[in-house]
Prior knowledge:
By secondary structure, the chain is mostly helical. It has a domain at 1-40. The protein is built from 5 helices and 2 strands, in the order αββαααα. It has helices at 2-6, 31-39, 63-78, 82-107, 112-122, and strands at residues 10-13, 19-22. A two-stranded antiparallel ribbon has the order 1-2. Helix 4 (82-107) runs antiparallel to helix 5. The radius of gyration is 22 Å and the shape is flat.
Amino acid sequence: MQRLVHAGFFASQRGNGGGFCLRVDRDKTSLLEVIEAMEGPTHRNVCLATGASCERKSWRAVHPVWLRVQATLRDVLASVSIGQLSRDTAVSRSKQLQLVITETAELDPGALEVVANKEKCSQV
Length: 124
């Protein structure tokens, strides 16, 4: 988390009642930005780094393939916002909870309260 704080994505507050607060617009912040803030530039192969990273990249036939892979990876990661990931996760978890409740109700109608409380307790 500290890397994301230093990169300006989050503010941190120490002490009792402290925690982290998102400082960026989640719908305008891409997954690529978050990954690169945490791990540095995304290079699927050492030859894709700028500069003299590989003396063979000028003649290796696979180099253009790695360039296309790299470009596609960056495009996909850049096209997904952390806001969209958050919404998709909430929908998936909601569907999962509905499925568990439906299955549980069919097996043991009295167990619904336990399942609902378990779901509340497992959130972090």
